[in-house]
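Lecture notes, continued. The same structure-token format from the folding unit now serves as the input rather than the output. Read the line below as a description of shape only.
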């Protein structure tokens, strides 16, 4: 079959969940046996979101091939179990960079280089890149931003041209918002009508409308929207607020979302998607009554998207262990000796978050000292692992001013230090140690037991590392280095074997945790927290 291209645009407001709708569709199509992938086009000028602080766009997700990506790629992977790559996330910055490089090389042969056709052609080339590999039946392309934004225009023009060129091999799904006006006790369709008009103004007729809403949209209202927007009534679909994003694929399927997509792209509609494993997960989620309470110590706790993949990995692990996850965010800047007992005592397990820079770091040390001394299941991720090492150096090895050279370049005890290959780097964008690397685990460690393997591969995003000059002193005092890169000897995992569960990973296991295959180390951590809760009682 020819590759089908599905474009997903959004209108009225941002944060409608285009990523969740795209992921849900991919999940359903994959469950029907199709080869699917999703890509995101972001209209900002940054080459990638790696240089954005989490307050801007939430977490920076990392793909196996080391691309610093929009957090929506995390949803794509969690919903589909399909790994994404650099090719799945394009920004305006990358499009322009490529066009400008071509101009400098002289590729345009003296022509005036313009948004149309040169930028739009470059966008179109990128849209078709994954399709051209022949590896996919469906390519879902999510266009970031909101219809009507200045910066989205070149993308919409590209979509218009592609729709025209591809005919029934393509489709446009437009996501809008139907607000409920409490005073009038009414849902309002006008913003949707206006948003579709905006799309039509740039020459795009949506085939399917997905309406985000808090209340049920009546058949009558659907017909009205269909009539005003030139869309078939059955192709007006509601996306009502649900208690878990993982229910969205089922809600969409109930309204024949996947069937409509197949029909409109001239594909046979036969049978049902194989959603049983997914439904089993939802059943576990709904049936869980007991809770497991986890604290996440970090500095971006005001914005929960900053730790999206960690939240989801914890949630998936808790669900598989038949528990409701109660996640408590603990602001590392506000944590100190006088309140740590009160803040951490109610918890069954503690995660020390990844991060960069000095802010909030001392609070992480306070938390870690408390957790280590009280033998609470504790999981340090990336900077969290580095903090475990520093706290241990200060309070167990007696190296008072131990630190990472990231926080104090002149520390007398640089137990965490800049990686050798980082020393010559001056550009900040895309230059960390990024993506998946091999890690060999010590056979008798808890972490090897968790994975049920000694050779694993996980994703990374860091510049600093455990300083191997100190390794022997740590090991002698009870902190073992139980995971390392087989080629370089870089320490990937530390563990205090004498504790219930005290493990830090230099890598980010959260990026590879999905609904249908939750990450083993998160599962092991949650199980330890559940055990600890029982013991506490
Ligand atoms: N700032 C630390 C480093 O660069 C940790 C990074 C992280 O937590 N992702 O090594």
């Amino acid at each position: 079959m020819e590759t089908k291209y599905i474009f997903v645009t959004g209108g009225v407001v941002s944060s409608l969940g285009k990523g969740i709708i795209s992921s849900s569709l991919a999940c359903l199509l994959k469950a029907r046996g199709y080869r699917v992938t999703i890509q995101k086009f972001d209209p900002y000028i940054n080459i990638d979101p790696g240089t954005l602080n989490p307050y801007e766009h939430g977490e920076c997700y990392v793909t196996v091939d080391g691309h610093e990506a929009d957090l929506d790629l995390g949803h794509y992977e969690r919903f589909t179990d399909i790994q994404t790559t650099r090719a799945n996330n394009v920004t305006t910055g990358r499009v322009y960079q490529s066009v400008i490089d071509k101009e400098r090389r002289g590729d345009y042969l003296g022509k005036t280089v313009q948004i149309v056709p040169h930028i739009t052609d470059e966008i179109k080339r990128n849209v078709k890149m994954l399709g051209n590999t022949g590896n996919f039946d469906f390519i879902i392309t999510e266009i970031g931003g909101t219809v009507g934004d200045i910066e989205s225009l070149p993308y919409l023009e590209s979509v218009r041209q592609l729709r025209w060129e591809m005919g029934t091999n393509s489709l446009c799904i437009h996501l809008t918002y139907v607000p409920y006006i409490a005073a009038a006790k009414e849902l309002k369709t006008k913003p949707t009508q206006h948003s579709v008009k905006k799309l039509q103004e740039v020459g795009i007729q949506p085939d399917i409308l997905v309406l985000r809403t808090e209340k049920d949209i009546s058949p009558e209202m659907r017909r009205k929207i269909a009539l005003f927007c030139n869309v078939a009534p059955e192709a007006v679909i509601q996306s009502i607020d649900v208690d878990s994003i993982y229910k969205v694929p089922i809600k969409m399927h109930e309204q024949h979302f996947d069937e409509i997509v197949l029909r409109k792209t001239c594909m046979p509609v036969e049978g049902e998607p194989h959603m049983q494993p997914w439904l089993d997960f939802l059943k576990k989620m709904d049936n869980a009554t007991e809770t497991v309470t986890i604290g996440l110590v970090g500095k971006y706790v005001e914005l929960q998207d900053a730790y999206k993949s960690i939240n989801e990995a914890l949630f998936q692990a808790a669900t598989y262990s038949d528990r409701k996850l109660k996640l408590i965010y603990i602001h590392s800047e506000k944590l100190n000796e006088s309140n740590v007992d009160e803040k951490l005592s109610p918890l069954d397990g503690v995660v020390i978050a990844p991060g960069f820079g000095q802010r909030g770091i001392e609070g992480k040390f306070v938390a870690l000292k408390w957790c280590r001394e009280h033998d609470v299941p504790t999981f340090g991720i990336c900077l969290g692992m580095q903090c475990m090492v520093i706290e241990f150096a200060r309070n167990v090895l007696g190296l008072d001013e131990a630190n990472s050279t990231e926080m104090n370049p002149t520390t007398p005890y640089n137990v965490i230090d800049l990686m050798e290959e980082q020393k010559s780097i001056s550009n900040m964008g895309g230059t960390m140690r990024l993506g998946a690397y091999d890690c060999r685990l010590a056979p008798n460690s808890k972490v090897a037991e968790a994975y049920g393997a000694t050779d694993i591969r996980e994703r990374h995003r860091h510049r600093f590392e455990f300083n191997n000059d100190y390794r022997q002193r740590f090991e002698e005092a009870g902190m073992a280095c139980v995971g390392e890169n087989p080629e370089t000897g870089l320490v990937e995992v530390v563990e205090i074997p004498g504790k219930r569960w005290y493990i830090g990973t230099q890598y980010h296991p959260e990026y590879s945790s999905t609904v249908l295959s939750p990450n083993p180390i998160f599962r092991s951590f949650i199980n330890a927290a559940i055990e600890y809760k029982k013991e506490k009682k």
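Point for the exam: Residues 354-356, 382-383, 406, 461-464 surround glutamine (CB under 6 Å).
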